[in-house]
Specification:
This protein has helices at 11-21, 36-42, 62-72, 87-95, 108-119, 127-143, 156-166, 171-178, 182-196, 201-210; strands at residues 2-7, 27-33, 50-53, 77-82, 100-103, 124-125. It is an alpha/beta fold. The chain folds into 2 domains: 2-125, 3-Layer(aba) Sandwich (Rossmann fold); 131-210, Orthogonal Bundle (Arc Repressor Mutant, subunit A). Helix 6 runs parallel beside helix 10 and helix 7 crosses helix 9 (182-196). The protein is globular and about 50 Å long. The N and C termini lie far apart (40 Å). The modification 4-aspartylphosphate is found at residue 54. Keywords: DNA-binding, Phosphoprotein, Transcription, Transcription regulation. This is Response regulator transcription factor.
């Protein structure tokens, strides 16, 4: 059972999401929060697997909540649920530890899929968000924008794997596309996580954006 907390300051939206998830066999809404502070009031006594987190929360906003969660409750997965599709919102909340980002106009099927994927340790982005990420990568590359940090050194094959990860390909799809084994894909993934200093796929996406590691499309 995936235990879900909904954190959003709009009652009608929270009730709507709760209604959508009712009756889903493997998902249970265990808590509803309307402020960022309320998240930390409830989470010590309410075991949670995935938090559906709005960015625009009163008091402590979603970015601050995500950052605090990543430090104090690292096992809790954060799925950002927002109306904003701007690059700044996406990259910031990924930087603070979110595993996924979907828009509030998403449908029931996609919401459930996103929750399940994030809970399993994978990342999930709405199609529109993925497009925003890809455009950002291309614009940074063609515009000559450079990161203020040193660019991590990764091999050409690791770049190929990273590009497919950002495009949300599965391990099997990456193996088939690059004509390599599943074991080799996982080896490259582990190497990327180590070299780029991140913990998960969302972190790989964020660093790919920040350091312009993608090849031009």
């Amino acid at each position: 059972m995936i235990r879900v907390m909904i954190a959003d300051d709009h009652n009608m939206f929270v009730e709507g999401v709760e209604s959508i998830l009712e009756g889903i066999d493997n998902i249970q809404v265990v808590a509803k929060c309307y402020t960022g502070l309320e998240v930390f009031e409830k989470i010590p006594s309410t075991p949670v697997d995935v938090i559906l987190l709005d960015i625009n929360l009163p008091g402590m906003n979603g970015l601050e909540v995500c950052q605090k969660l990543s430090k104090e409750y690292p096992d809790v997965k954060v799925l950002a649920l927002s109306m904003h599709n701007e690059e700044s919102f996406v990259t910031e909340i990924l930087k603070y530890g979110a595993q996924g980002y979907i828009l509030k106009n998403t449908g029931k099927k996609e919401l459930i899929n996103a929750i399940e994927m994030v809970n399993s340790g994978q990342s999930y982005f709405s199609d529109e968000v993925t497009e925003t990420i890809m455009k950002s990568l291309v614009n940074q590359r063609t515009g000559g924008k450079k990161s203020s940090m040193l660019t991590p050194k990764i091999s050409r094959r690791e770049k190929d794997v990273l590009e497919l990860i950002v495009k949300e390909h599965t391990t099997q799809e990456i193996a088939d596309t690059l004509f390599i084994s599943l074991k080799t894909v996982e080896s490259h993934r582990r190497s990327l996580l180590t070299k780029l200093g991140v913990r998960n796929t969302a972190g790989l996406v964020r660093v790919a954006i920040e350091h312009q590691l993608m090849k031009p499309v």
